[in-house]
Specification:
This protein has 412 residues and is an alpha/beta fold. The protein has 2 domains: 4-32 and 280-408, Lyase, Ornithine Decarboxylase, Chain A, domain 1, CATH 2.40.37; 34-279, Alanine racemase (TIM Barrel). The protein has helices at 18-25, 34-46, 65-72, 83-91, 108-117, 127-140, 178-187, 208-226, 252-263, 276-279, 312-316, 404-408; strands at 4-7, 10-13, 16-17, 29-33, 53-58, 77-80, 99-101, 121-124, 144-151, 173-174, 191-197, 233-235, 269-272, 283-294, 299-303, 322-324, 332-338, 347-355, 362-365, 386-391, 394-399. Helix 3 links the parallel strand 5 and strand 6. Helix 5 (108-117) packs across helix 6 (127-140) and helix 8 (208-226) packs parallel to helix 9. Pyridoxal-5'-phosphate binds next to helix 10. GO terms for molecular function: diaminopimelate decarboxylase activity; pyridoxal phosphate binding.
């Protein structure tokens, strides 16, 4: 459920007509709905109400300060994967003791930054990282709480680029050698292993891979307890999918019930790292039709948003619903919706039935709130889109549109 709906023949973001936003801020324009963010966060977080838990929003899905502030105000923690994301989270007012830090390539300066900020824990992905955190914590006179990220070798049945829990993936420690890694963590100075972590992939549309991973993790936990290491935290990562097209992902409530049942009354705090499920359907990308073009083999709708604004279709061949901002009840045509970038991979939709739109009209690309703006770039020297956050009738410019001056500001 989201708060982008038609009223009187035109698309609204909550109580504001999308065309009004475009008149003020131009296109391409990312529009987020605060009510949707809050609704999704509450639906997810309350699904785990029966367990001690911490919901840590995955910042890489959408790292805009206004989005982070909205979630932080609801008590959300965050999962970060870089020093830059830590900086943003702290700037948005996220409590350091609600920050977990994942990622395979944490650099020394980032580790120091996180220890100084006093984050809850590091999700450690290699022995080298473990040693490095220990050394830095020792130098700073601090103790680092860590979970080791276990790769449970579970197939999440999603796009290969967003599968992370298979043996062949670069993430985590293989489950066979992880006991030794915990033993090492016990020996190293200034490190306390406090939990177990895993994250098997993104856009999962079924609960069973999560349960399969949890089962392996719980077996692993028993061995760990037998070694005298009793984890207080169990981090199951993110990955719950959303509906882009025909998918039918489980509702967070169903997900929460299944995990609550599987965990029984184990004395652990569950950590969850949802990204997409919170913010994916809380955002649209609004774009203007620049030209329509007929070729002998295809009809094209050329719009002013491109792969630099939303790379998901090009990168993952992913589907985003596209609808008119002002539906006019015309016949449909089968078209490719493409951007102005000089790449054949620059498309937002291919072979899509769309009403026969004309130049100057506005289209809304749905489900663009997650991995949309955060994956955007300046390719073809295109200034990045503006982002606005709508809350009822209130509009916040969450990020102003980049200018040509911004494009060259760091160059000489
Ligand atoms: C990307 C990521 C997430 C969030 O994944 P979603 O599919 O957006 O929920 C959570 N944890 C880690 C470690 C990640 O890399």
């Amino acid at each position: 459920m989201h708060h982008f709906a038609y009223r009187g023949g035109e698309l609204y973001a909550e109580d504001v007509p999308v065309s009004t936003l475009v008149a003020a801020y131009g296109t391409p324009l990312y529009v987020y709905s605060a009510a949707t963010l809050r609704r999704h966060f509450t639906a997810f977080d309350s699904a785990f109400g029966g367990l001690p838990h911490l919901t840590c929003f995955s910042v890489k899905a959408n790292s805009n300060l206004s989005v982070l502030k909205t979630l932080a105000a609801m008590g959300a923690g965050v999962d970060i994967v870089s020093g830059g994301e830590l900086y943003r989270a702290l700037a948005a007012g996220v409590a350091p003791e609600k920050i977990v830090y994942s990622g395979v390539g944490k650099r020394a300066a980032e580790i120091e930054q996180a220890l100084t900020a006093g984050i809850l824990m590091f999700n450690v992905e290699s022995l080298g990282e473990l040693e490095r955190i220990s050394a830095i914590a020792k130098r700073l006179g601090k103790t680092a709480q860590v979970s080791l990220r276990i790769n449970p070798d579970v197939d999440p049945k999603t796009h290969p680029y967003i599968s992370t829990g298979l043996k062949k993936n670069k993430f985590g420690l293989d489950i066979e050698n992880s006991l030794a890694a915990y033993a090492k963590a016990m020996e190293l100075p200034n490190i306390t292993p406090v939990g177990i972590d895993c994250h098997i992939g993104s856009q999962l549309t079924s609960i069973s891979p999560f349960l399969e991973a949890l089962d392996k993790i719980l077996t692993f936990r028993e061995k760990l307890c037998a070694m005298g290491i009793v984890p207080r935290y169990l981090d199951l990562g993110g990955g719950l999918g959303i509906q882009y097209d025909e998918e039918d992902p489980p509702h967070p409530k169903e997900f929460g019930e299944a995990l609550t049942k599987a965990l029984g009354d184990l004395p652990m705090t569950l950590i969850l790292e949802p990204g997409r499920v919170i913010v994916g359907n809380a955002g649209i990308l609004v774009t203007e039709v620049v030209y329509t073009k007929k070729t002998p083999s295809k009809d094209f709708v050329i719009v002013d948003a491109a792969m630099n604004d939303l790379i998901r279709p090009s990168l993952y061949d992913s589907f985003h619903a596209i609808r008119e901002v002002r539906p006019a009840g015309r016949e449909t045509l089968n078209v490719d919706v493409v951007g102005p970038i000089c790449e054949s991979g620059d498309f937002l939709a291919r072979d899509r039935d769309l009403p026969a739109v004309a130049p100057g009209e506005l289209l809304a690309v749905y489900s663009a709130g997650a991995y949309g703006f955060t994956m955007s770039s300046n390719y073809n020297s295109r200034p990045r889109a503006a982002e606005v956050l709508v809350d009822g009738e209130t509009v916040t410019v969450a990020r102003r549109r980049e200018t040509y001056e911004d494009l060259i500001a760091l160059e000489r």
